[in-house]
Specification:
single chain, alpha/beta, ten-stranded mixed sheet
Amino acid sequence: MFTKIFVGYDGSDQCKDALALARVLAAPSNAAVIAVCVFPYEPSFSKAGGSDSDYHDALQREAVGILAGAEGATERRAVASGSPSRALQELAENENADLLVVGSTHHGAMGRVLIGSVGERLLHGAHCPVAVAPKGFAGAKEPSLRRVAVGFDGSPEAGRALELAARLAGEAHGTIHLYWSVEPPGATSPVFAGDYGWPSYSEKIFNAAHDEIDEAIARLPAELEPQGDVLSGKAAPTLAAEVTGEADLLVLGSRGYGSVRGVLLGRVSAELARSAPCPLLVVPRGAAVPGEPEEASLAAT
């Protein structure tokens, strides 16, 4: 599946979580895991001239020292930039990375994803899928990604996420479960808090969702033991509650609006990046997916 995975690393516990997740995702295909420490350096543009190489070299040495603790990385990079997210994006795109992995912010609860500013910027602009490790993942005794959950809604973006999830579950000899959450109008806006005939209309939506999930399941390999559920409620919290304790990995496609290579994270994906109870892998709209023809990612836009 994956061949080259970049991990943002600064020596923090959250980055160690990210590195641990990267190693698990890399294991089936023996992918390269590249730890990247971005140190805060921009060249001096002073008209007075002079060299600031000593300052650069000192920061670089510190970054190299931090990278020495990147246990399990197959390669380590110290990169100078004023923006960690921009540096990771550019490096990953220039070197055709399959996946970017980041850790949660330190303010999150143990075992939960709570995306930090660097991770959020990556999710908004990455050219490839982005995975977020929950707090404490590095401390898991035997981390496994055998139970794969997919947020599914019948859209092309969800279809691409499902294809990636199925390949991951297959590599792990695991299972896959599709979840479709139908939101009542009042869940997204208090303006539509009245039912306006919603109970009868929702029955048609639920039936259609069940039909699409059944069709998707029929296309999946039987050895993945595919299952599916249609849920009712606000999508992000409903899905987060449903997969708690039931999934080792949650895969989502983003439906944000934007141009190719300038993707925007969709609302549900953004909310789950702040509340998922397990590792989260997001396929942004327009992002390249391992094993997928380039025209497929372009068609998703």
